[in-house]
C-alpha cells in the first residue's frame, strides 16, 4: 500500500508540472510549439559571476578606451607624460649682414673712428623650453653669431694705419651673442612635415675685435703668425628677431624629433660712433642667420 501511494503521488506531481508549462511561441510550420527562455548562459558564469546576462544590456556597451571622443590633433595624447612637453633645439649655419652693416665710412676712418662694416659669418643656436601643445611652445634661446670684417674695410683701415703689406696687418671680427625668449607656432602640412613661425626679443651683446698677427715659433713647425686682439669695443643692447622655418619628422610621424631649416631677421639696437666715443659700431646691426638643426 505504501508503494502504491508513493507512485500515485509522483504521478500527480508530474501531471501538475506539465499543465503549468505555457508555450512561448509557435515557430514551426506544423503547429507544434515549444517554450524558450528570455535569459541565456553567459561566459560570466565561467569567471565566477552570474550564470545569466541580459542581452539588452550587452547591446548598449560603452565605447572602448573610456569615451571614444576625438582628441584635438594639437593636444598631447593621454599616454604621453610631462617629459613630452620639454622643448629643445640645436642648430648651426651661416649669417648674412644687411643694412648699416654692409658699408663703412672712409671719412670716419680718416677721423680715427672705428666703424667697421660686417662680412658674412657663422652661427650657433641652442634653446630649451616648453611645448604647451603640439602646435605652440616657447623657448629660451642662446645664439652666437661671429662675423668677419670685409676686405675693403680692412684694406682702408690698414692704409690709414700704415700697416698695408706688412706682417702686422690689422684684421678683425665681430661677435654678437644673445639671450632671448621666443614663442614658436607650428603649421603642419602633413603628419610628418610642415612650417613654423617664431620670434621674440631680449638681451644682445656685440663685441668688435681688432687683431694683429704675433710671431710664434715651434721647433717642429717653424714660425707662424697668431692673431692677438690689440683693440676692441662692445655694447650691451636690446634687440629682436623674427623668422620662418620648415621641418620634417625624421623618426616617423609620432616622433617629436624634427630636422629643421630656418631663416631669421635679427635686429640689434647698437649705437653709432660719435666724436666723444669713437669706439662704437656703424649703428643698428641687422643680420639674417640661416640655421639647420634638430628640434624636439
Structure summary:
14% of the residues lie in helices and 46% in strands. The protein is mainly beta.
Topology record:
Elements: H1 2-20, E1 40-41, E2 52-53, H2 55-59, E3 86-98, H3 106-110, E4 121-131, E5 136-148, H4 151-161, E6 171-188, E7 193-218, E8 222-249, E9 258-268, E10 285-295
Adjacency order of strands in the biggest sheet: 3-4-5-6-7-8-9-10
Largest sheet: 8 strands, antiparallel, barrel
User: How many strand units?
Assistant: 10
What percentage of the residues does DSSP assign to strands (E)? Answer: over 45%
Spell out the helices and strands N to C.
HEEHEHEEHEEEEE
Number of structural units classed as domains: 1
Name of the CATH class = Mainly Beta
Unreliable stretches: 20-71
Query: Structural class of the secondary structure composition?
Result: mainly beta
Shape: elongated
- Helix share of residues? 10-25%
Number of helices: 4
Taking the alpha carbons of the first and last residues, their distance comes to: 97 Å
The CATH architecture can be given as: Beta Barrel
Q: Radius of gyration from the CA trace?
A: 41 Å
The averaged pLDDT comes out at: 77
- The CATH topology comes to Porin
Which features characterize this protein?
46% strand; mainly beta; 296 residues; 8-stranded antiparallel barrel; Porin
Could you characterize the architecture of this molecule?
With 296 residues, the protein is mainly beta. Helix content is 14%, strand content 46%. It is built from 4 helices and 10 strands; from the N terminus they run H-E-E-H-E-H-E-E-H-E-E-E-E-E. The chain has an 8-stranded antiparallel β-barrel. A two-stranded antiparallel ribbon has the order 1-2. It is elongated. The model is unreliable at 20-71 (pLDDT under 50).
